[in-house]
Design brief:
CATH architecture: 3-Layer(aba) Sandwich
Number of domains: 1
CATH topology: Trna Endonuclease, Chain: A, domain 1
Order of helices and strands: HEHEEHHEHE
Strand content: 25-35%
Shape: globular
CATH class: Alpha Beta
Radius of gyration: 15 Å
Number of helices: 5
Distance between the termini: 28 Å
């Protein structure tokens, strides 16, 4: 886990209804070894909010071109139904809970990110929630209850 991911982890955990699994393997095919079973991803942070009954697939990026992040989202869009099925099967997520991506990127890249997402033409996956990395700095929120 890099420094940016650690900051996002603490930001997410400051909401007491949010529980986080780091580097969570999302494996489309139920098999013993994800490396040989087909499409799978290690999501930076899988955040489950019990109050909202929502699951967030959190990805953290500070790369200037965002290409890896966009490619990940493109893959998720292609396999969205199977991805949600895998979360129900392997992580015991209730099947009726909403699942959506949540990206954490530098604020100066948000315009470029919005354009790239618009070009993807999302049909299966909800549009990702976007939070600026600058907004997850510990002095910007209360560490014991971020949402109050």
């Amino acid at each position: 886990m890099n420094n940016c991911e650690s900051l996002v982890l603490e930001y997410l955990r400051a909401d007491r209804a949010m529980f986080v699994n780091t580097q969570c393997c999302i494996q489309l095919i139920d098999a013993l070894n994800p490396d040989t079973s087909g499409p799978h991803w290690y999501c930076d942070l899988l955040a489950v909010n019990f109050k909202e009954k929502q699951v967030y697939l959190c990805e953290v990026s500070h790369a200037k071109n965002l290409s890896s992040l966009i490619n990940r989202l493109k893959d998720w869009e292609l396999h969205w139904s199977e991805l949600k099925t895998a979360l129900v099967r392997d992580s015991s997520i209730p099947h009726d809970w909403e699942v959506r991506p949540w990206v954490f990127i530098p604020s100066d890249l948000s315009g470029a990110f919005d354009l790239k997402i618009a070009n993807l033409g999302l049909k299966n996956m909800p549009k990702p929630e976007v939070t600026a990395l600058e907004d997850v700095m510990p002095w910007k929120y209360r560490s014991w209850n971020r949402l109050v």
